[in-house]
Amino acid sequence: MNVTLPKKEKLNARDIIVYTISIIVCIIAIVVIGLSYYFGSDELDRLITIGGSSLTQEDIDYQLLLSNFDNIFQNQVEESNMTVEIKKVDENQPVVYTYYTNNEVEKDNYELNLNIPYINIDNDTIKSFNDTIKKTFEAKAENTLQTKNQNIIYSVQYQATMQNDILSLIIKATLKQNTDAQRVIMQTYNYDLKNNKEISLEEMLNYKNLNVEGVEDRIKEEITTQQKRVNDLKSLGYDIFERNPDNDMYKVENTKTFFVKDGNIYIIYPYGNDGLTSEYDLVIV
């Protein structure tokens, strides 16, 4: 994967929005849990019903999943409901483990916090995954170690799951170099361990009996909402990363970045993969 760094700097509106929403959601969640304990669920339903609409537990749970996304990166693999036997490259290591780590700090040059994973499965498809991971994340680390006076801050974290014979791995890199805007890069790798093949988002949705058109409608709704916020911020004079809800990139068949965890599919559009931005959109189904 080639990493390009355009020069135009953009303000990260997503962080502003996410932090605000996260604070509000956390306050609401604490209040709701407290009221539920004190009043009971029936009385709570009556108390939070305003103007004919009520805040559902599903709404709260979804917002908490969104706000907790950055916390899922624990540099480890979670395993449950596995039935297949896996042929490893190294029998003494887990199926996914940290093979490259670096926490060096050199004043005025770089600050590193790197945990780069290796998928410990012996087949050609997984080998190509590992090659891409190495070329993308480790190569940047080695380049950074040779760079002087650029004040580079570079971190890489990951999380993997093995659930119901599906391996899912997400890697997140954050890069800040000199006066450039911060950039966030995310890659995901999803593999059907039973049938020994890479699995697409459409196949994953079908596996979970989710309607593809319905998921695309949810994606378009989320992107439209984000673009409306962008327009609101632009009207205040901010230079914000823009979305086009009608772009074919948001179709399920063209969506490559997704992660599976605890029965949820995290569908991600990381705009920093191709540009100098930390903006991304996230839909969970």
List strands and helices in order, with pairings.
Elements: H1 13-39, H2 41-48, E1 49-50, E2 53-54, H3 57-67, E3 77-80, E4 96-102, E5 105-106, E6 110-119, H4 124-145, E7 152-163, E8 166-177, E9 183-192, E10 197-198, H5 201-207, H6 212-234, E11 258-261, E12 264-270, E13 280-284
Helix pairs in contact: 1-2, 1-3
Which properties best describe this structure?
285 residues; alpha+beta; Heat Shock Protein 90; 2 domains; three-stranded antiparallel β-sheet; globular; disordered N terminus
End-to-end gap: 28 Å
Shape: globular
Number of strands: 13
Rg over alpha carbons: 21 Å
Which strand-content bin applies to the residues? 25-35%
Per the CATH scheme, the topology name of the largest domain is Heat Shock Protein 90
Describe the structure concisely for a colleague:
By secondary structure, the chain is of the alpha+beta class. It has helices spanning about 15-40, 40-50, 55-65, 125-145, 200-205, 210-235; strands spanning about 50, 55, 75-80, 95-100, 105, 110-120, 150-165, 165-175, 185-190, 195-200, 260, 265-270, 280-285. The relative contact order is 0.15.
Describe the structure.
The structure is a single chain. The protein has six helices and 13 strands. It is of the alpha+beta class. It folds into two domains: 55 residues; 216 residues, Heat Shock Protein 90. Strands 3, 4, 5, 6, 7, 8, 9 and 10 form an eight-stranded mixed beta sheet that branches. The chain has a three-stranded antiparallel beta sheet with strand order 11-12-13, sandwiched between helices. Strands 1-2 form a two-stranded antiparallel ribbon. The longest helix has 27 residues. The N terminus is likely disordered.
